[in-house]
Amino acid sequence: MSLRVGLVGCGNISEIYLLNARQFTSFEIVACADLDESRARAKAESHGVAQRSLPALLADPAIDIVLNLTPAQAHADVSLAALGSGKHVYSEKPLAANAAPAAAIVERARQAGRRVGCAPDTVLGANVQAAARLLDGGEIGDVVFATAGVLSHGMEHWHPDPRAFYQAGGGPVLDMGPYYVGALVTLLGPVVRVQSAGRIGIATRTVTTASSALRGQSFTPEVQTTVSSVLQFAGGAQATLVASWDAWAHAHPMLELHATGGSLRLADPNWFGGPLGVARGNAGWVETPTDAMIFGRPNRPAAGTQVANYRGLGLAEMAAAISAGRPHLASGEMALHVLQVLLAIGTSAGGAGAVDLPAARFERPRLSEAAARELWRDAP
Q1: Considering the entire predicted model, what is its pTM?
Q2: 278: number of Cβ within 10 Å
Q3: Per residue in 145-156, pLDDT tens?
């Protein structure tokens, strides 16, 4: 059974969802809406879907799920309105800009008997899931600590309007942190305490994106652009996370886990595939490719190469779970916890010292290769 999806928010990220939707088996995007009607019209015409106003999309009884791709500050309003209209919701990350409305989304869905799913669904990709299977099987023992680094020089060199990324609700922790914290939580379970320090690095930013109408314009960041954190997990592991848009270049591993019997090195958690490095004991690193797995195969261009970009996988798995009457994997409960961790990092970095997290209960997502193959049309 293919569920019908209405997309809200026709900005930069919507294109990959619309492209990938053609290949997922469990849903189809039938309509789109945006406050900018001309932008919605262009997306609708380009992808052969209907253009609707937001009220019309929410009122349409033929739409089962609202795909919320609006800016983070609008996530809560759109998701709550969709739930109030009887729709299921799948949202881009973060679930909301603040913890209280995010919790309200999860609770409203529970009361209404509706589903809430949320990105990042990269945690369902081949790289993180292959790592999860190694850890779950006890192949390298218990994880002692992890290191993660989300390091770049920000958004102003590629995004047409990067200013919102540097305003309240933005910054490297809330924008890119969900991929890294999402992967860590998927592998290690809930976080119980964080302690952080941060600062604004470069005081004035200039847009250099070649195609941007804002090219050459400068702006001032409102949020910290470099934050260093220590995360303590309920299971005993700890992790250091450095999130910065002040790095011109770096050689920092994006994500490593070090256990009592070996180590794991994951690929960029912004994508779904990439090689998994495994070091057992003193044997040194051995790289295992994941491109033979269905959601590890490179399928889209990025930065001059091909990457595995299957955005929409979490939505596809949720739609399949709704049809089958079982729990879905990219759950609202896990997304709420990830957001609480990210916000606690910001609170701590603002001078609050160590911050304890609320107790969290969610299933760590595990997607078998057999189940994955059911979700993609040309799975070999």
Answers
A1: 0.95
A2: 20
A3: 999 999 999 999
